[in-house]
Write a structure and sequence with these properties.
- The protein is of the alpha/beta class and 310 residues long.
- It has two domains: 166 residues, Peroxisomal Thiolase, Chain A, domain 1; 134 residues, Thiolase/Chalcone synthase (Peroxisomal Thiolase, Chain A, domain 1, 3-Layer(aba) Sandwich), CATH 3.40.47.
- 32% of the residues lie in helices and 25% in strands.
- A hairpin with a 2-residue loop joins β9 and β10.
- α3 packs across α4 and α7 crosses α8.
- The model has no long low-confidence stretch (mean pLDDT 95).
Length: 310
């Protein structure tokens, strides 16, 4: 059955220490640790680009898949809003790096925080329609390319990373039904102008607080599953404050709702698959709810179920 077989992850080793910016931004240890929840942000090397991060994630995937064959890949897609170039599409560059066959489809998806959930639905639907057997979904949004070092709202929060999800017939997790939504009237609250990122943190928080609880209820009902039957809630890692608020508002079990970005930051479309990789080898995790929300303003949620035949 078509679904997620494995995930490769790359988080750059280079880090920026937020405690070094306390005086610059007049912030406290408590703000860094308990509200922002990010002590360090990961940063790619100055000579790297989005495609390079994708390639590093691919190498991580290959480490656990010795029988993996690039010749069998039917399609790749890269979810990014920070491509190498305005054209061509970054997936074409990754295609060259991976030395994939000419009959392999390659396209980009321009989405941010909801991008992994959208991307998973898109590539799986594309593969089913085309009768494809093997696909790769990359996420790579290095915000270090557009963050203003003097902007407290962004430089302390966002980190660079990339992931690749291997979609095949030998799936560990299969997808249920998805929910999607857009509030385009709020697009200016998280925007890149003149190559610099601008974020209205209060409005982004208000958006998440008002939208995500209802969408999670909607996706549970759509998939005919009770909240008690979900083993992990993998919510986009916007900040510790947002995650803590949603846990309380929705009534989620904290043990089932990880917060993972303390040492590398908000990695945009990569935040959910980074956590999902840790779930693949844990057979006690049967049902996972994934929910992404942010830039757009956009949101999407879905249910992943472990394939009991594996």
């Amino acid at each position: 059955m078509l679904g997620i077989q494995d995930i490769g992850v790359h988080i750059p080793k280079l880090r920026s220490n937020n405690f070094d910016n306390k005086d610059k931004f007049s912030i406290s240890d408590d703000f860094i640790e308990n509200k922002l929840g990010v002590t360090h942000t990961s940063q790619m090397e100055v000579n790297q680009d989005s495609s390079d991060l994708c390639y590093e994630a691919y190498k991580d995937l290959r480490l656990s898949n010795s029988d993996f064959s690039p010749e069998n890949i039917d399609v790749i897609t890269v979810c990014t809003q920070n491509p190498d170039y305005s054209l061509p599409h970054t997936s074409a560059i990754v295609h060259k790096m991976l030395k994939l066959p000419d009959d392999c489809a390659a396209f980009d998806i321009s989405l941010g925080c909801s991008g992994y959930v959208y991307g998973l639905a898109i590539i799986e639907s594309f593969m089913k329609l085309s009768n494809f057997k093997n696909g790769l979904l990359f996420t790579a949004d290095p915000y270090s390319k557009i963050v203003d070092d003097n902007d407290k709202n962004t430089v302390l929060l966002f980190g660079d990373a990339a992931t690749v999800t291997y979609i095949s017939q030998n799936s560990i997790f299969t997808s249920g039904k998805f929910t999607f939504g857009t509030r385009g009237s709020g697009f200016e609250h998280l925007i890149c102008r003149d190559q610099k990122l601008h974020m209205n943190g209060r409005e982004i928080f208000n958006f998440a607080a008002r939208t995500v609880p209802g969408d999670i209820q909607k996706v549970l009902e759509l998939n005919n599953i009770e909240i008690e039957d979900i083993d992990r809630f993998l919510l986009h890692q916007g900040s510790k404050f947002i995650i803590d608020f949603l846990i309380k508002r929705i009534g989620l079990e904290k043990e089932k709702t990880p917060y993972a970005i303390k040492n590398y930051g908000n990695t945009v479309s990569s935040s959910i698959p980074i956590m999902l990789k840790e779930c693949i080898g844990d057979n006690s995790i049967k049902n996972i709810l994934i929910s992404g929300f942010g830039v757009g303003l956009s949101w999407a949620s879905g249910i992943l179920t472990r394939n009991i035949n594996i």
